[in-house]
Amino acid sequence: MKERLTFFYRKSGRSAQKWATTLAAHIAKRHPRIVVSDEGPHFVVVLGGDGTILEAARIYGKQGAIIVGLNLGHVGFLASARRPREFTKAIDALTTGAYVVSKRMMVTGTVYRKNKPVYQTDSLNEIALQGLSGVIKLTVLVDKHPLQYIHGNALMVATPTGSTAYNLSAHGPIVTPDIQCFILTEIMDHNIPTPSIVLKRTKTIQVNVTEIRAKGLLSVTATGEPVDAVLTSDDTSIFPLHEGDRVEIGRSKRLIKFAEFTPDYFYKSLQEKFAFR
């Protein structure tokens, strides 16, 4: 039975286009049981950086496709192969079954306004509540137990996969992707700073938008609605928040599958990125 593979990349990337052409020719020549097709692919080979890999995971992950990241960006934490010289070898390993599947948890968030759901999103890296033009006040509860009162810029709830992204920039901890948990990291809290908190994956996190300092300096392009705070999902999906909104955050039912070709690949990525010796 033939398996289907598709390439995913941003059309503006010339290097990605060249690699897609080269690898497609290699597959046609060496691996005839693999069909390059966009229809219901078993494998999605992503040529780009972590942002492109995230985009592909959102589009194809819900279909159960295995994501294969070939890094053409700067960081490459989500990539299955980090250097171009490894790309052809990675394709050979993929097509011969010489890989393991790493299943990554996602986080889901639902916004309630006047006790009615008005927005829902799933994220591979993180969900964040952010004030855009000033301080935002948030009350955080875990399984309905009050935990934090934030008077600052933002709060994010990250997955282990997202621990090396926005969470790391905010000095949150790195968590290995084989652990299923949530990481709560506050950003620029005007109170005494609280360290990040790691929570079990079964917990439900509730964040109440207690106060927004409305300035009306920004607006939604489509509607002209003033916006002073937003909920972001992997820095791509954005939803305006209102004072009094309630956001419930928990584990998504979906898992995203990544191909890994090297044992302990995550640790090797950390060693290369941070020059651990």
Could you provide a short overview of the structure?
By secondary structure, the chain is α+β, with helices and mostly antiparallel strands. It is 18% helix and 40% strand. It has helices at residues 14-30, 50-60, 87-95, 166-169, 265-274; strands at residues 3-8, 34-36, 43-48, 66-71, 100-113, 116-123, 126-131, 136-142, 145-152, 154-158, 181-187, 197-200, 205-212, 229-233, 237-240, 246-260.
Overview of this structure, please?
- The protein is an alpha+beta fold.
- Helix content is 18%, strand content 40%.
- It is built from five helices and 16 strands.
- It has helices at 14-30, 50-60, 87-95, 166-169, 265-274, and strands at 3-8, 34-36, 43-48, 66-71, 100-113, 116-123, 126-131, 136-142, 145-152, 154-158, 181-187, 197-200, 205-212, 229-233, 237-240, 246-260.
- Strands 1, 2, 3, 4, 5, 6, 8, 9, 13 and 16 form a ten-stranded mixed sheet that branches. The protein has a six-stranded antiparallel sheet with strand order 12-11-10-7-14-15, with no helix packed on it.
- Strand 8 (136-142) and strand 9 (145-152) form a beta hairpin.
- Helix 1 (14-30) crosses helix 3 (87-95).
- The longest helix is centred in the N-terminal third of the chain and has 17 residues, at 14-30.
- The N and C termini lie far apart (46 Å).
